[in-house]
Design brief:
Shape: flat
Largest sheet: 2 strands, antiparallel
Strand order of the largest sheet: 1-2
Length: about 160
């Protein structure tokens, strides 16, 4: 097994552990919130907290506030300050750009002139199947191998 293959193997193992840990964390959080709501009185902010010798834990209320655009427009117009409280934003309508392209008013060179392209990279590791169509067996990584710093050689 090559050095890079060992790195991929460790990556997949950690990814799977993280997935399981997130699932367990969500489950535990739900149980803590349920327990706190059943056994604590809410404070002035709607939080349910309990404490023991080691932890303060519970169900925390979080609020977000936003403007309801339709209500705000109607209300601010009634107050006569809609123009002061709003702004007009112009932006390119991609559907209209497509229509202009179909009508021949724009061509693909024009689209290239006004477009941008971003490339981002992510790690991609997938387990492969052996020739029999079965998943390859998991291989344990020894502690000694885990402590080594990985060395990746530049491929030319």
């Amino acid at each position: 097994m090559s050095g890079a293959s060992k790195l991929a193997q460790q990556y997949v193992a950690i990814r799977n552990q993280i997935k399981e840990m997130k699932k367990r964390k969500k489950e535990l959080g739900g149980r803590i919130k349920e327990y706190a709501e059943q056994n604590a009185d809410p404070d002035n902010n709607g939080n349910f907290y309990l404490s023991d010798d080691n932890y303060t834990f519970g169900k925390q209320a979080r609020q977000s506030v936003g403007i309801d655009e339709e209500k705000a427009e109607e209300y601010l117009k009634e107050l006569g300050i809609w123009e002061q409280a709003s702004k007009v934003e112009r932006k390119v309508d991609e559907d209209k750009i497509e229509d202009l392209l179909e009508e021949g008013k724009l061509d693909y060179d024009d689209i290239e002139e006004i477009s941008y392209r971003r490339v981002s990279y992510a790690v991609s590791v997938r387990e492969r199947e052996n020739e029999d169509g079965e998943d390859m067996p998991e291989v344990e990584v020894s502690e000694r191998e885990e402590k080594k710093k990985p060395s990746l050689k530049k491929v030319t």
